[in-house]
Amino acid sequence: MTVADGRRMFRIPVGTWSGIAVLRPVFSQPYESIRRSLMRVTMLRAKIHRATVTRADLHYVGSLTVDRGLLEASGILVGERVSVVDIDNGERFETYVIEGEPGSGVIGVNGAAARLVSVGDRVIIMAYGSVKLSKAQELRPRVIMVDEQNRVQHMGDDPAFPTTYPA
Fold first, then answer.
1. How far apart are CA 11 and CA 28, in angstroms?
2. 24 and 12 in contact (C-beta within 8 Å)?
3. Global pTM?
4. Which active-site residues does the annotation give?
């Protein structure tokens, strides 16, 4: 048997196999504590809520073009993978973000995903991040609400705000 102190692991022989000792790891802290300290979860990190699709270009190289001002307000990065949900038809897809002209209000769905939306559809754009389970409750997503012209109307950290939405 190997003795250890603090947080180090030690091994206790549990039997033999063909004359070779079989060892079982034992931890000085409870297994659940170790599991929780190592586990990571995927959490909502940023969201642009109810953006209006301004263009859908099937023959453009696939991506999602977003006004740079909206990217800065939401904290979504150029090249970041995002999930997009079309509120009007229920379609969902994932793609990556490219920067659009600042102040233009552009939300452009490019490539094959353009078949899943129509200009004028309202969409939710969400970016996620991987965080330690122990830090997950501390994460506050950056959420922005936009109007029909994709101008920021509200910024906050509550993914469900407001609880009632305009028609």
1. 11
2. yes
3. 0.76
4. 63, 96
